[in-house]
Each structure stands twice: as structure tokens, then as C-alpha cells.
Amino acid sequence: MVVLLIKEEKITYVEDIAQGIESAPGALVGLFSGRNVGKQVVVVARENTHTLKQSKMGEEINNKQVILNNYVKTSVKESDMSLRTSKIQLKIPSGCDGAVLVKNLYLSCDPYMLSRMKKLEGHYTASFTPDSPISGYGVSKILDSSHPNFKTGELVWGSTGWEEYSLIKDPSLLFKVHDKDLPLSYYTGILGMTGMTAYVGLFELCSPKKGETVYVSAASGAVGQIVGQFAKTAGCYVVGSAGSKEKVDLLKKKFGFDEAFNYKEEQDYNAALKRYFPDGIDIYFENVGGKMLEAVLNNMRLHGRIAVCGMISQYSLEQPECVHNLSNLITKRIRMEGFIIGDHYHLYPKFLEMVVPLIKEGKITCVEDIAEGIESAPGALVGLFSGRNVGKQVVVVARE
Ligand SMILES: NC(=O)c1ccc[n+]([C@@H]2O[C@H](COP(=O)([O-])OP(=O)(O)OC[C@H]3O[C@@H](n4cnc5c(N)ncnc54)[C@H](OP(=O)(O)O)[C@@H]3O)[C@@H](O)[C@H]2O)c1
Questions:
Q1: What does pTM read for this prediction?
Q2: Range with the lowest mean pLDDT among 13-22, 189-198, 289-298?
Q3: Residue 215, φ and ψ in degrees, nearest 5
Q4: Does pLDDT of 4 surpass 70?
Q5: To test ligand 1's pocket by mutation, which of 287, 314, 340, 385 has the most ligand atoms within 8 angstroms of CB?
Q6: Whose CA is nearest to atom 46 of ligand 1?
Q7: 31-86, pLDDT tens digit by residue?
């Protein structure tokens, strides 16, 4: 009964993964203070077997794909996508020099993908093509390569198709997975684009200093949870907002935020921010936009910094809302700066140098929301826009 319910996505399950046998005592003790979020598991070792037998190389096999049915106008629904099974040959076709053929293991669900489902003009990223598989960030294993920098058997993360196998003709957006001690799925999140986004927005744009006050919206999500923990490592006072009591508890108990509140229970965002920041906000990490941004502008301090990472409250609207209170930028000399993470990947090695030891020493952690099977991908992606995800939304296509 239960296997069927899981496969049909009628029940789901959140795991709290502690890495390495060294983390086992802490993980066990955490059960008694409620530090765990969901089932507490300790990973002692991960099987590293290649489940695709050599005999399959070169064969034509089935390839399940997530297809965009048609352009989306406002919000996205599961029915805007469908699952199709096509065929793929497990070998790079002749004439495809510089390509790699990969088996996709984990896919990352990211809010920006909604923009790509729309018919875009003059946007920083291209629209998906209707009736074709969509693409995004993922973690993959190289099955065949005609590119001098990539070898069969290597693990990579970066841009790939939402399908079981992808022929990537331009692998320039792939990064190698170097540290195999950490869970591979982390390369969809804390060790990949998401972690980089938190790092660049907070450290490069806002330069946090000890004792400063930091506010993070959508704080329990993929980017937000990392921003808050990074800000704590910099000695800041950190407050986050999120959309449920469960998420607020997570922020305080798991991620070490000083305070957190459920924005859905607040009638007046201005009053809520005054309560948590009586002397004002030095740094705002903007993930949501709209009315929250308006309230934040009124509560910023002199020489405050705002990293404009995302505005998820606006993505599904036909007409984006107007933002009031912008004159605070002048009177308080606030620097408000938007960024696109794709412009900053040259900082990836510097980022890894900082983040890997922090994870290994248990100084920062991350919570993932794992959806099993490519069939669950459309629902997982759509769930971002109603806050169904708890932490980084990942889809497991295959475990190596
Ligand atoms: N600039 C860049 O290069 C870049 C890169 C990555 C991500 N981003 C942006 O960063 C933000 C966070 O992305 P993520 O990957 O970390 O996603 P996420 O936070 O893991 O998931 C999205 C969360 O947003 C919240 N949300 C959804 N609709 C909302 C609404 N109408 N008002 C307020 N909150 C809403 C929900 O949490 P609650 O339950 O708390 O409402 C939901 O769980 C997004 O705006 C995204 O576009 C930007």
C-alpha cells in the first residue's frame, strides 16, 4: 500500500539528513530539543555504484521527459506540463563534437523557471519551447563525452534537461562535482546555484558587518535559509519571515535565526518589522517584493543595503504591483541592487572554499524537500508558488 501511495504522490515525507558517522551523536540528541525537521537520518556512506550496466551503452532506451504544453500566461499549474516518453541512444551521435551525454540524477526546482514558461521578449533568459522538454539546474553523471574537459563517469552540476537522459551540446554551463563526501543533491542547492545566490547577494552586494541587523523574506526557502545562516556567521542579528508556523520554527530552531515571524498572520507588515527591528534594518535580502518591500523601505536604516534577489509575489500576476515608499532610498542613502547569479560564477571556487568547511564543521546546514521520481517534477515546481516546499525543492530522477 505505502509504496503505491508514495509513487502516486498521495503521501510525502521530509528527511533531515546528517552527514557522516561523526554527526550521529548530535543528530540523536537533537531529537529531544526538536532540532530535527522530519525523519532524522545519518548518512554513513553512499553506495557509489553505476547502475547503468556497460551493456546498455549505445543502446536506444526510453527517456521520460517533462514537456511544456504551451506558454503560461500568469500562474503555472501542473496541467501546463506533461510527461512524455521518447527514445534516446546512449551514445553521442556522430558530428556532435564537444557534447556530453548525461544521466540526470537530481533536478532543482527554481522560481525563475516560471518566467521561462512565458513568452518572453527582452528577458535575460530565453523562453522554453512549447511541446519540448523544459530545462533547469541539475546534477548529472556523464555517460559519454566528446568534450576534452569531461570524462565518462564524472559527476557534474549545471544546466540540463528535465528528462532522464540529456544530450548537452554546449557543456559550458556545467561544473564538476569535486567534493563527493557531501550529498550529491546539495549541488542543486547549498553547493550550487542556490548557495551561490545567497553568497553573492549577502556578501558581495551587502558586505554584512558584525552587529548589523539583517532581514530575509522567504527565509525558510532554498536561498533564504542559507542567507540567514551566512549572516549569523558574520555576527549579525537575523530575522526571517515565512508562510507557516512549521517554517517559522525551522528558522529559529534549525537555522539559528534570532527571530522569525509568519507573514501570513500579520495584518500590518510595517508594524511587524518595527516589532523585530525597533532600530531599523541594515540589510534586507529581498526574495518576495510587493507589499513586503514597501514596508521594508520604511524600516531601513541610514546607509542600508538591499540585495534584490527575487520577487516571487509578483511572478504569477498579470500586472506587477506598484511599489511605494521609494523616496526612502534618497533620504536614507540606501543602496538597492538587483543581481542575476549567472553573472557571478567566476566566484564559485571562492564560494566553495568558504561553504564546504562550514557544512563539514556543522556550522551551517540545509533542509531539502525531496520529491521522488521525474513524474513528481511538475507538482514539485508548481508547489514553490504556494509555499508547499519546506526548504530546497529537489526532484530525484535517479540515485546514481
Ligand atoms: N537573482 C538570482 O539570480 C536568483 C537566483 C535564485 C533564486 N532567486 C530568487 O530567490 C527567491 C527565492 O528562491 P528559492 O529558490 O529560494 O525558492 P524557495 O524560497 O525555496 O521557494 C519559494 C518560496 O517563496 C515563498 N512564496 C511563494 N509565493 C509567495 C508570495 N506570493 N509571497 C511571499 N512569499 C511567497 C514560499 O514560502 P513561504 O511559505 O514562506 O511563503 C515558497 O516556499 C525567488 O524570488 C527567486 O526568484 C534569484
A1: 0.90
A2: 13-22
A3: -115, 135
A4: no
A5: 287
A6: 310
A7: 776 767 777 777 655 543 334 555 478 899 999 999 999 999 999 999 999 999 99
Mutation choice for ligand 1 from 14, 193, 215, 223, CB with most ligand atoms inside 8 A: 223
- Each residue of 124-166: pLDDT tens digit? 889 999 999 999 999 999 999 999 999 999 999 999 999 999 9
Q: Quick one: pLDDT at residue 363?
A: 95
Name the grid cell of 277.
527591528
Q: In what order do the strands lie in the sheet with 335-338?
A: 259-262, 237-242, 213-216, 281-286, 300-308, 335-338
Mean pLDDT of the chain: 92
Cα 184 to the center of its chain, rounded Å: 14
The DSSP annotation for 80-131 comes to GEEEEEEEEESSPPTT-TT-EEEEEEEEE--TTHHHHTS--SS-SSPPPPTT
Task: Give the containing element (helix H, strand E) for 198.
Answer: helix 193-199
CA distance 238 to 228: 6
Contact indicator for 326, 357 with CB cutoff of 8 Å: no
Domains of the chain and any CATH numbers: 2-43 (no CATH), 54-189+372-396 (3.90.180.10), 193-343 (3.40.50.720)
* Cα 367 to middle of ligand 1, angstroms: 15
Cell of 343: 553573472
What is the H or E stretch that residue 145 is in? strand 135-145
The b-or-e profile of 34-65 (16+ CB within 10 A means b, else e) is: eebbbebebeeeeeeeeebeeeeeeeeeebbb
The position carrying cell 551523536 is 25
Enumerate residues lining ligand 1, CB below 6 A. 110-112, 194, 197, 218, 220-224, 242-244, 247, 287-288, 309-313, 339-341, 384-385, 387, 389, 393
Packing angle of the helix pair 291-299, 269-276 (nearest 10 deg) = 40
Q: Burial, 375: exposed, middle or buried (Cβ in 10 Å; 0-12, 13-18, 19+)?
A: middle
Q: Give Dmax (Cα) for the chain.
A: 69
H/E element holding 197? helix 193-199
Question: Which amino acid appears at position 7 of this protein?
Answer: K
Counting atoms of ligand 1 from 1, which one is nearest the CA of 316? 31
